[in-house]
Design a protein that fits this description.
Blueprint lengths: L13 H15 L4 E4 L17 H32 L3 E6 L12 H21 L3 E8 L11 H10 L8 H13 L7 E4 L7
Parallel strand pairs: 1-2, 2-3, 3-4
Helix pairs in contact: 1-2, 2-3
Length: 198
């Protein structure tokens, strides 16, 4: 029987990050997988440099870069302990195609995801073989947040070889594949329906 618990946390707060990892380990007695899927964005035209204030940069960097790093650091000992008894621990960071291509809702957002991609590779080097670290970099994903993004929806329908945005299940399957592999580490899997080819 599948079981789950829910722990509410604001990942902009260090104390909430620590509580999140602590409660997960306390509930299950172990930690095998960490998926860093929380993130925030700000929509700012790339040419509007004045609106990309220092406050915006700090806010996005804290949640999209610092929080995932801090969570990995907090979870490291539990992930290593699990690796001694079973298979290597697994971290999967949810990035964005904006961290690979010069695109995205804003320059601060794209840069934060590019930093997350590089951090993924650095952590893979630092934590292996006990802990594997990978990332998935989605393009547009159909969610309530993106339902009104008509321009982006049209772009994916017209230019991506798959002629659609991703579903949440598409990205979940990519994450599950990376978790399920015992060999892949340091990879940033671009999952944008092939839009990057155009």
């Amino acid at each position: 029987m599948n079981q789950a618990i829910y722990v509410q946390a604001d990942l902009a707060l260090e104390a909430d990050r620590a509580r999140l990892v602590s409660e997960a380990v306390s509930a299950w007695g172990q930690l095998d997988v960490l998926v860093n899927n929380a993130g925030i964005s700000k929509v700012i035209p790339h040419e509007d440099l004045a609106s990309a204030t220092a406050a915006v940069w700090h806010e996005l960097h804290e949640v999209n870069v610092v929080a995932p790093f801090h969570l990995v650091a907090l979870a490291e000992s539990a992930l290593r302990e699990a690796a001694q008894c079973r298979r290597a621990g697994s971290v999967v960071n949810i990035s964005s195609h904006a961290g690979i291509r010069p695109k995205g809702a804003s320059i601060p957002y794209a840069v934060s995801k590019a930093a997350l991609n590089h951090m993924t590779r650095l952590l893979a080097l630092s934590l292996g073989p006990d802990i594997r670290v990978n990332a998935v970099a989605p393009g547009l994903v159909d969610t309530p947040l993106t339902a009104g993004w008509t321009g982006a929806q049209a772009l994916w329908r017209e230019r991506a070889p798959m002629h659609r945005a991703a579903s949440p299940d598409d990205i979940a399957h990519a994450v599950a594949m990376l978790v399920g592999s015992d060999y892949l580490t340091g990879e940033v899997l671009l999952s944008d329906g092939g839009l990057n080819l155009t």
